Amino acid sequence: MLKMVSGNPGFNKKKKRLIVLFPPKEKELDELTLRLQRDGVSPEASAEERELHLEGSLTTATEDLQTLRTQQASEMRE
What we know:
The protein contains two helices and four strands, in the order ββββαα. The protein is mainly alpha-helical. It is elongated.
């Protein structure tokens, strides 16, 4: 399955790469469901709401990781 990004299937303009998504396995779905429940997302939330929440979590984690990498690089220069 290809993800639609900015009207183009599977193409992320910002990163300039193709995003190919495969259907998750049952174990992965269970893990995602547990994560959503821990984060307080209702089991009745729409697929779009769940996706937006997970995307936001991923964005935050990515930004945090970049901050840590920048801090580590600064410390190594000192």
